[in-house]
Amino acid sequence: MRDILKVENLSKVYKSGSKNLTVLEGINFSIKEGEVLSIVGPSGSGKTTLLGLCAGLDKATTGTVSFYDTVINTLTEDERAALRSENVGFIFQNFQLIPTLSALENVMIPLELQGNAKAKHRSLELLERVGLSDRYDHYPTQLSGGEQQRVSLARAFSSNPKILFADEPTGNLDDETSHNVESLMFELNKEENTTLVIVTHDMELAGKTKRIIQLKGGHIVSDMLNEHTTVNA
Amino acid sequence: MKNLKFLIRTAYRDSRQNRGKLAMFMSSIILGIAALVAINSFNYNLVNDIDRQAASLLGADLTVNGNREIAPKLKAKFDSLPGESARELELFSMASLEDVNEMQFVRLKALQGNFPFYGKLKTVPVEAATDFRNSNGALVDDGFMIQHGLSVGDSIKLGYATFYIAGRLQSAFGSAGVTSSFAPTIYISLSELNKTKLVKEGSLVDYTYYKKLPEGFDADAWEEEQKMLFRNEGMRITTVKERKEALNEAFDMLNYFLNAVALVSLLLGCIGVASSVFIYVKNKIPSIAVLRCLGLKGRQAFLIYFIQIFILGSIAVALGAFLGSFIQLILPLLLSDFLPLEVTTVLSWKAIGEGLVVGSTVTILFALLPLISVRRISPLRTLRSSFEEEEGERDYLSWLVYFGIIISIFVFLWYLMSDLIMSAYFTVGLILSFVLLYSVSKAIMWAVRKYFPRKWSFVLRQGLANLYRPNNQTQTLLISIGLGTAVLAMLFIIQGLLLKNVQQMDAGNQPNMILYGIETDQRDSLAAMTRENGLPLIQQVPIVTIRLEEWKGRTKSEWLADTVADISRWAANREARVTYRDSLDPFDKLVAGKFIGEYKGGNDSIFVSLGADFAEQLKVGIGDELIYNVQGTRIKTYVSSLRKLDFTKMQARFFIVFPTGVLEEAPQFHVLVTKSPDTKTTAEFRGKVVTAFPNVSVVDLGMILQALGDILDKVSYIIKFMAAFSILTGLIVLISSLLLSKFQRIKESVLLRTIGASRKQILQINATEYVLLGALSAATGICISLAGSFLLATFVLELPFNIQWLPILAVFLFVVGLTVVIGMINTREVVSKSPLEVLRKEVE
C-alpha cells in the first residue's frame, strides 16, 4: 500500500499579539491508502490544527505535508483548493451545510465543482443511501441534527474522495443519533474504499478505528494500532 | 469559463433565500439612480423646451430694449426692418383698489400693437387678451385678484386713471411666476398710459420694441451688424437665439444645484451599496468557507457573489431609472413658479441611458470594495469560527477599486459640468470631505478610548464603549449621516442668513419705507403729510436723469471700442439717476478726495463725487474729467471724491452726487425715506399718500420681506424635496449600518441578559450608543455645514455671517431622534424575545 499522506517535522506557530504560540511541533507520521485512523487528544492539544494542515486548509510554519508525491504546503491556496476538490472530503462537527441550498444541492456541490454531468443522479443515490431520499428538497433548517449530519456524509462521499477528514463528526449529536451516524460513516467508507481520518476526543469513537494517534501539548505522545477495533481497514 | 454554468447556478441557488437581505442594497441604488434620472430628465426636457419655445418666450423675432425712449436714428433703423411692430413700456407703480380699499405695488406693462406675436397672454376670459388693447381695461395677475378678492369688471386705479378689470392674467408673459409675489403684473393699453400721468421726465421706465420678421429674415445677422450702434445708445437687441442662450445660462445654476443634489444622493447610495454588500458578505462567510473547503477557488467564490450583486444591481438600476422617470413628472410642478415656460415631461432616453451606465458603474465599483474580500475567506473558518484572516498584507485590488471609484466620480462630474478644472476641484473636495469625516470618526474613537470615563455608570460605559468595539458603526454612520445632516443644516443656515439680513435693515432707527416718483411741486406737501402722520423725514432727495458722454478726453464710443481699456459697458451706457447735495451723506463713507458740496457759478468747476466701485468700472479717479448730458445740455465735471456706498440700508444710494447749484432747474423727481413704527401705520400712511398723490409709489420693507420670504419658502420647499432624496438614501445607509453590527450586538445583549441584565438596562445601553452616534454624526455634519455656509456667505453671497441656532438645534435633534428610533427598532428583537430563543436562533 502507498502512503496517501505523509507528515514530516511539521510545526505550526500562531502569532498572538507580540507573542508566538506553538500549537504543533515535530509531528511525523504517514497514512496508507484505505487506512482508518483517529487523532485524539484533550482540548487544545492541536488536533484540529493538524487536521487543517493535513487537509490543505492551512499552511505549516515548518515541515511538510505530502499528498502522495505532492507537497501540499508549497501549493498556492487555489492549487490547494483544486487538490481538495479532486481528492478530499470533509465531515464537520457542526455539519457545515450551506443554509441556502437544499439537501440535494448541498450534496451536488463537490460534483458540480468538478463539472460532473451526473451530479444529480449520484447525489440522489447517496441521499437514498443515507436514508434521506424523501427529504432531498429540504433546507438544512428543516432537518434535524442527525439528518443534517447524514446529508453531510453524503456530500463528503459524493465526489469519491481519496481521503476523508472528519472533525468530531458526532460531537453535536445525542448518543443514539451518534451511533447511527458512526455506523453509516464506517459503512460508506468501506463501500467507497476511502482513507478516513477522524479527529475526536471521544475515545469510544476512536476505539472503533484501527489506528490511534494521540496528541498532547502539540506533540504526538503515542501512535499505535488498535487491537480491539471494530472497523476493518 | 469552464465553470461558469456552475457559478451562475450556485449564485442563483444561494440567492434564493437571501433576496430580502439585499433589499437595502437595492433600495440604495434605486434611490440614487432615481434622483439622477429624474433630475437629468428634467434638465434635458428643460433644454429642449427652451429650444422649442424660445420664439414664444420672446414673443417676437427680435426686441430692442432700454431704460429710455429709443433715439430717432435707432428708431429709423428699427422701423426699416420688415414686418409687424409692437411696443411696451414697463414701470412700477401703486395700484389703488377702491372697491376693497387697499393699495398694492405693481408692475405695470403698457402695450401697443399685437404683441405677443408668438404664444399668447393667457387670460380668463380668453377674449380679454384682445379686448384690453382697445379700451381702458386692464389684465390683472390672477394671484393678486384672488388675494384681494377682486372680480372681472371691478375697477383699479393706476396713477390718476381708473381702469376696469378686463380679465385675469394667468401667467405673466416671459417671466417666472415667482416675480409676481413682489409686484403682480398688470397689462393696460399704451394709449391709456398717459391718463395715469405716471410717466414723466426721469421716471424709471423700461422701453421695449418688438418686431415680427418675415420668414427667412436673418435676425441674428442684423443684430450682429447693429449691436454696437444700439449698445452705445444704451439699447439692447435680443433675438430668439440670444434669448435661448440667456435662458440656458440662467438655468445653469439650477442645473448645478440639481446635479449637486443628484450627486450627493448617488454618493450616499454608493455608501449604502458598500455597507449593505458588506453585511451580506459578512453573513455569507460561513457558507463561503464551506465552499472553499470543498475546493472552490477564491476567484470562483468571488464570482458567485459578484454575479448575484451584478444581477440584482442591474434590476435595481433599471427600477431606479423607472422611478426617476416617474419622479420627473413631479419636478416641473414643483418648479413651475421659477420657470417662464412650460416644461414637458416626456421620457428622456438620454437621461435613462446615463442613469443605467452611471448606476451600473458605481454599483459595481462600490460593491467590489466588500466583494473582493470574498477571495480571501479562508476555508479554515469551517474548523474555527473565530478564525480571522491575517491582516497586514494589503490587497492590491482594493487600491485598484478605490482608484476606479475616484476616476469614475471625476468622469461623471466632468460629463455633468463639462468643465475639467471644476470637476477636478469637485472630486478633490469630495475626497477631502470623506477623508475629513473619516478622520473625525477615527479621532472620536481614539479619544473615547483614551479618555474613557471609567467612573460612569455601567449602562453609559457600555453604550460609550460600543463606539470603538469591534464591528462598530461609528465610521459608516459619521460619513453617511454626517453628510446628510450637513446638507440639511446648510439649507437652514443660508435661508436664515438671507432673511435675517433683510430683517436687520429695519433695526433701530433704520428707515423702512421709500416713497418715490414725487414731483417737485408735490415735495413739500408730501413732506408735510409725512410729519403730520408722526413719521420722520429721514431722507428727501431730488433725482435727475443724466447720461455720460465723454470722460478723460475720449467719447463713450471711443471707450467702448477700446477692448483693452476694459471699462464696464453697464456703467458707461446706463441712464444715471443722480442727486445733488451740499454735504456728504452721513451714510456714505469718503474713501478718497474731498467732498465739494457747492458750485458757485462763473468760472468755478463742477466737482462730482462718485461711488468708488462705479469709478473703478469707468477707470476714473480723482481729478478726472467727465462730461454729462443733462437732458440736452452738456456739463463738464471733475471727480473730487470717491465714496463707499452701503447698500444694506433701505435708502436711496447714488453712484454720482452733484454739488448744489447745477441741477436745480433740470427736470427731476424726488424720493422720500421714512420709518414707520408698525404695519398698521404703514398701511394707513400708504393709503393716504396714494390717495393724495396717485403717481407716488410707496415701497416698504415689510412688503419686501414678505416677498422675499415667499420666494425663499418656495426655494426651500424645492431644496427640501430634493434633499429628501439624500436624506432618504442616508436613512437606508443608517439602517444598513445599524444592521451591520446588529448580530454582534444581539449576541452581546443576550449574554448580558443571560447573566442577569434587565431589559431596561439593555435598552438603556443601546439607546446610549445610538444617542452618542446620532449626536456625533449630527454634530460633525453641522460643523461641516457651518464651515460651508460661512464660505458661501462670505465669498459668494457677500453677507455678514451669523448663525441662527434654533433651526440648527432642530436639525440636530431630528437626526439624533431618527438615529435612536431606527436603532431601537433594529434591536427590539433582543429585548422582546427570551435569551434562549435568540441563542437558539444564533446557533441555527
Question: What does it look like?
Answer:
- The complex is a heterodimer of chains A (233) and B (844).
- Chain A is 33% helix and 30% strand.
- Chain A has 233 residues and is α/β, with parallel strands linked by helices.
- Chain A has a single domain, classed as 3-Layer(aba) Sandwich (Rossmann fold), CATH 3.40.50.300.
- The longest helix of chain A has 18 residues, at 175-192.
- The relative contact order of chain A is 0.19.
- The model of chain A has no long low-confidence stretch (mean pLDDT 89).
- By secondary structure, chain B is an alpha+beta fold.
- Among the domains of chain B are: 56-246, no CATH class; 452-507 and 702-844, no CATH class; 539-674, no CATH class.
- Chain B has 25 helices and 21 strands.
- In chain B, the strands form two sheets. A six-stranded mixed β-barrel of chain B has the order 2-3-8-5-7-6.
- In chain B, helix 15 (474-503) packs across helix 23 (759-797) and helix 21 runs parallel beside helix 24 (805-832).
- Chain B is elongated and about 110 Å long.
- The mean pLDDT of chain B is 81.
- The A-B interface holds A 48, 51-52, 55, 57-58, 77-78, 81-86, 88, 90, 92, 96-101, 105, 109-110, 112-115, 139, 141, 155, 167 and B 2-3, 6, 9-10, 13-18, 286-287, 289-299, 378-380, 382-384, 844.
